[in-house]
Design brief:
The complex is a heterodimer of chains A (about 160) and B (about 210). Chain A is about 20% helix and about 35% strand. Chain A is of the alpha+beta class and about 160 residues long. In chain A, a hairpin with a 3-residue loop joins β9 and β10. In chain B, a hairpin with a 3-residue loop joins β3 and β4. Chain B is globular, with a radius of gyration of 16 Å. Classes of the chains: A alpha+beta (about 160), B alpha+beta (about 210).
Amino acid sequence: MGVKHIIGISDWKVGRGDDVLVTYALGSCIGTCLYDRTTGIAGLSHIMLPDSTAIIDGHTTRMKFADTALPDMLDRMKAMGASPMAIKAKIAGGAVMFQTANSRFNIGERNIEAVKAALMKLRIPIIAEDVGLNYGRTMTFWAENGAVEISSTVMGKKMI
Amino acid sequence: MSIGKYEDLSDIQIDVLREVGNIGSGNATTALSSMVGKMIDIQVPSVKVLGFNEAIDEVGGAEKIIAGILIRINGDVDGMIMFLFEQNLISLIVQTFFGSAPQDILSLNEAEMSALNEMGNIMAGSYVNAISQLAGMTIDVEPPMMTIDMLGAIMSVPAIEMGEMGDQLLFIDNNMVIDNTSIQSKMLLLPTIDSLDHLLGKLGVA
């Protein structure tokens, strides 16, 4: 039996085989699934913020930011035996939960850009995405085959 | 002493914040009560300093469907007020305005949504007025914004904005009770860490 890994806000976890990775209710945060089809090694990260360099408080976790969480998770997957060249990404989230005229608060958009930039830097292609708009998403990721389900209150369930 | 992290708050400061919540939410509840013509009580507020995931579990769980009304506040206190309204409170408010309750929370029409939004606006104004008078402060209230979605997605907004400098949220949490039935609808006051210092200073417990 595989393990069901629940990934909270500013967290990431890895799995393999018939493990299932789930992150609930992504709002403006981003869920990033990394998957190596050749070894079945999978990782799911739930970031809150784009950029760790703006943060001066040294106590905060690296798992919170796009620019630190994704390289760390990739390193863990490599240590487990994943092949970096084979890894592909699926991303979801980055919604604007409350519409506002003030773009200062559009963190969803900034998160999407930051995750895409971090993946490009790691040379990981994005093969599917469900980002932006104005609703929350739960992401379920099966390590067995790399399938990702997005469920939301407005759109129901869909596979990406 | 300046508060660098929410967990640095002393017991006395927590008590003072609880009283702030008590006065603010008492006033907001009176406004709600007179609008809907029902007796509404509030339970004694609690001041919570929790990690993001614990905070979401504490207010109902990530996938719970709820109406969130967010009101940003600024001036002598910066941060936000978040109302989390459950089905039974939404039904009560909608029924008051339109005569019939909605089928379910996901099928509200535009007029019903805007009535709820206005209710949030009135309650936030009452909440903030009470705090302002308490400490001789000026606090501005921005227009309310509302969405109906998963609680975790709604709470990601304060988590992101308040959590930039740390990994915890501070909120003053009030449960409302209508006709002796707990309805689990909540009023949260979430001050930023910077304005917390200012607020506690004004109240003489900095």
